[in-house]
Amino acid sequence: MSIAPKKRQARSVARLAAVQALYQMEVSGAGAEIVVREFSDHRFDGDIEGQPLAEADEAFFGEIVRGVVGDQATIDKAIARRLAQGWRLERIDATLRAIFRAATFELSRRSDVPVEVVIDEYVEIAKSFFDGPEAGFVNGALDAIARDERA
């Protein structure tokens, strides 16, 4: 079964928004429901400099954000297992933590989404935030996490 291009784009937008929401929650201490509502009320269906934003799959966005929060301890353990020896999740940039958490949620709880799609999507998100080696780091770590989660 193939996902229609418009739905695929809506999911890509939802993934990016989920990473932004998870980051926002970490730095502000806001809860998941407050942030999900804020995105629904003020960020989706908006525009940037007069250009409309692409439509987001809001249900998918909410599922990722709530899922990460609801299972964060397990998700963080899955990520930590695949970090280089001596590295702790707390030492990683907050944006990378949000990327890893959202992707790991999908890899562990959304078996209907192919591993390659999840990894590609979050590598692209990493590229949108970072110019350095972070995208390669995300790719390698998510590949290892996927092997663990979908074995």
Please characterize this protein's 3D structure.
It is a single chain. With 151 residues, the chain is mostly helical. It has seven helices and two strands; from the N terminus they run H-H-E-E-H-H-H-H-H. Helix 3 (58-70) packs across helix 5. It is globular.
Quick recap:
The chain has 151 residues and is mostly helical. Helices cover 70% and strands 3% of the residues.
For the termini, the CA-CA separation is: 22 Å
Question: Biggest sheet, in brief?
Answer: 2 strands, antiparallel
Q: CATH superfamily, called what?
A: NusB-like
Number of strands: 2
CA-based shape: globular
Secondary-structure-based class equals mainly alpha
- Overall mean pLDDT stands at 88
**Residue ranges: pLDDT <50 for 5 or more in a row?**
none
CATH topology: N-utilizing Substance Protein B Homolog, Chain A
**What CATH architecture do you see?**
Orthogonal Bundle
Strand order of the largest sheet: 1-2
Helix and strand element order = HHEEHHHHH
Note the beta-strand portion. Answer: under 5%
How many helical stretches? 7
Estimate percent helicity: 55-70%
The total number of structural domains is 1
Over the alpha carbons, how many angstroms does the gyration radius reach?
A: 15 Å
At the first level of CATH, what is the class? Mainly Alpha
Secondary-structure map:
Layout: H1 5-28, H2 32-43, E1 47-48, E2 51-52, H3 58-70, H4 72-80, H5 94-109, H6 115-129, H7 134-149
Antiparallel strand pairs: 1-2
Helix pairs in contact: 1-2, 1-3, 1-5, 2-3, 3-5, 4-5, 5-6, 5-7, 6-7
